[in-house]
Design a protein that fits this description.
The chain has helices at residues 61-68, 101-118, 134-145, 172-178, 199-207, 215-221, 223-235, 268-279, 301-317; strands at residues 29-31, 40-46, 75-76, 81-82, 88-93, 122-128, 148-153, 187-192, 211-214, 240-246, 284-290. The protein has 318 residues and is α/β, with parallel strands linked by helices. It has one domain (40-317): Ureohydrolase domain (Arginase, Chain A). The longest helix is centred in the middle third of the chain and has 18 residues, at 101-118.
């Protein structure tokens, strides 16, 4: 045998089939080194589930969603765009405090604010975590962006009182409104469902002039009409729009990995259409995806959909 010959040429740490014609989304992900200026889309993981009212493994979700980017190609057939030359930065995960929930929220807020100040042209895509992460994420975002409007996809109002349990995945929008980070009239809630909210919380959002589109309105009006109306309302009132996607807005058939599944929700097709439309709106400058528990999921269905939301958001942004 020749000197230097490879004895075992087919042994690799990760052996997988490779098609030379196919670029996967994972191929365009670039781990951020902490120094390069970020232009365009960037992933930020927020692995927090301690604030979930019910048992949740949502802290595992950021890395599982990332792994789903290895499943899909970069080619978008409808628009005939190949995203293989796009750079998708990955900023890693915000390190959570082991026991202190308020410290966790503080770290999220400080991280979001610092990133937005240093990288004003970044398009942050935040991977939760439970929905409590939206409070510090949006408050940190608003410190840099000014007057922020929020379009929230959710089965729940998420304005629970703060006395019975403190900050949780049921309180982010009450925290934001009462903390003065956003105004009630700048919050749009889409997909709110029957038997998922107390009467007092429905009264609360009405008193604060939140724009609420219950599922019956979604079915009657259609998601395009709702978003067109919502963006037109916000356009003259805010400086930026943050999109928050709680995956339990979906019918349980489409999101088995949500801790709070239920019938009568949106379809995955409608949610993808919504994200596609929002991505084309320049006023939209951030998006989070929350409430996926990979330990409850079936064949990663919910995380796969999350990956599709990310890919659609980035592609339609071009």
């Amino acid at each position: 045998m020749e000197e230097g010959a490879i004895l075992y040429p087919y042994l690799k740490q990760k052996a997988r089939f490779v098609d030379r014609e196919v670029t996967k989304w994972s191929d365009i992900v670039k781990t951020w080194n902490g120094m390069d200026v970020i232009q365009g889309p960037a992933l930020i993981g927020v692995p927090l589930a301690k604030t979930s009212i019910s048992h949740s493994g949502a802290h595992l979700s950021p890395d599982v969603i990332r792994s789903m980017l290895d499943v899909y190609s970069t080619y978008h057939m409808d628009s005939e765009q190949d995203m293989k030359k796009t750079v998708l930065h990955d900023c890693g995960n915000v390190e959570m405090h082991v026991t202190d929930l308020h410290q966790c929220h503080k770290r999220i807020e400080q991280t979001m604010h610092a990133l937005m100040v240093a990288h004003p042209n970044m398009l942050p895509i935040i991977l939760g975590g439970d929905h409590s992460i939206s409070f510090p994420s949006i408050s940190g975002f608003a410190k840099h962006k000014g007057k922020v409007g929020v379009i929230q996809f959710d089965a729940h109002h998420d304005v629970r009182n703060l006395e019975d349990g403190g900050p949780s995945n049921g309180t982010p929008f009450r925290n934001l409104i009462e903390g003065g980070h956003i105004r009630g009239e700048h919050l749009v809630q889409i997909g709110i469902r029957n038997f998922s909210n107390a009467k007092s919380y429905h009264t609360y959002v009405k008193q604060h002039h939140v724009h609420v589109y219950e599922m019956k309105k979604v079915e009657k009006m259609g998601i395009v009409a709702i978003l067109t109306e919502s963006i037109n309302k916000l356009r003259s009132q805010v400086d930026s729009i943050y999109v928050s996607v709680d995956m339990d807005v979906l019918d349980q058939a489409f999101a088995p990995g949500c801790p709070a599944i239920g019938p009568g929700g949106m379809s995955s097709g409608d949610l993808l259409e919504a994200v596609e439309l929002l991505a084309k709106e320049s006023l939209v400058e951030a998006m989070d995806i929350v409430e996926i528990d990979p330990t409850l999921d079936f064949r990663d269905m919910t995380s796969r959909l999350a990956a599709h939301l990310i890919m659609t958001f980035i592609t339609m942004r071009q």
